Amino acid sequence: MRLLLAEDDDMIGRHLEAGLRDAGFSVDRATDGVAADLALQQQEYGLVLLDLGLPRADGLTVLRQLRQRGSATPVLILTARDAVSDRIAGLDAGADDYLVKPFDFDELLARIRAVQRRHAGRASPLFEHGALRLDLASHQVWLGEREVPLSAREYALLFELLQKPGTPLSRARLENRLYGWDEEVASNAVEVHIHALRRKLGAAWILNLRGVGYYVPKQPPEAA
Fold this sequence. Notes:
Blueprint: E1 2-6, H1 10-22, E2 26-30, H2 33-42, E3 47-50, H3 59-68, E4 75-79, H4 84-92, E5 97-100, H5 105-120, E6 126-129, E7 132-135, E8 141-143, E9 146-147, H6 152-162, H7 171-178, H8 189-201, E10 207-209, E11 213-215
Parallel strand pairs: 1-2, 1-3, 3-4, 4-5
Antiparallel strand pairs: 6-7, 7-8, 8-9, 10-11
Helix pairs in contact: 2-3, 6-8
């Protein structure tokens, strides 16, 4: 999943970027509110991690502008502002969650997973499609009773395809969701990961609609 991190403190920002990438996320970072708002107008993100004390435009302004455009992009506020009134203002402005600094990084990851589940309409930490199961906490994948080892990028690609089974996603859209601003993307990167997923899961799990894109079938195949 591709995230936008809106954080102006360089030390905190670099620490969060590194940790999130190690956890399998692609991360774009904006260091002020104007840049964050511009990024949100130009790019589709799976989640926004939003500091409130941003220069040029504060986090609440960014959040309100996002919601005024009709965007349902999940937003998790990360801030040192711990007053109850600040929490109420953030949640009422449209934030999905509110986490006060300093926080434990594992708690941040758990809250990201919780927001993901709520937006997907799921209560369980297990994401299931037929015999295929993804554990959002551990990033483990099973096909039937068999655990399937996937790289971080393969897992991210499979997760994107499973959001809407039966709906093809173009190579460009998949690249857009999987890679951040500063990541080099080989011309055949998506095809390489698709090939690896088909080899590990079976070709019937990842289909291609020529000229349109790749998709997981709405009716899941039987586990091999």
